[in-house]
Amino acid sequence: SLCGGVDESGRKLVDNFIREIEGQFPSKDSVYEYFVDVKTKTWAHWEKELSPTWRYSTDAPFHQIQVPTVDTVRYEFLLSTL
Asked: What is the pTM of this model?
């Protein structure tokens, strides 16, 4: 992850810096909200990876339910590619 350890003010600085270098970056949200879709060779928003039909299992204990969010999808991707 590029500059994954920076705080919120650092993320704004990194966002501005990357946008200066990469002129094709989407203007909505920060650079941290996007990944490269290798199939289309374009920037894609992490929200694209969320399942619109996700439902929790009524049989699952509360402490085992993992709600897919942009953050959980992004971190799952990063961990699975290490």
From this structure: 0.70
Torsion of CA 54, 57, 62, 67, to 10 degrees: -10
Tokens (6 digits) for 77: 């991707």
What pLDDT, in 10s, does the model give residues 26-37?
Answer: 888 888 889 989
Is 71 in contact with 4 (CB distance < 8 Å)?
Answer: no
Q: How far is CA 74 from CA 20, 32, 33, in A?
A: 24, 10, 9
pLDDT of residue 62: 93
Amino acid at 42: T
Please tell me whether residue 45 adopts helix, strand or coil conformation: strand
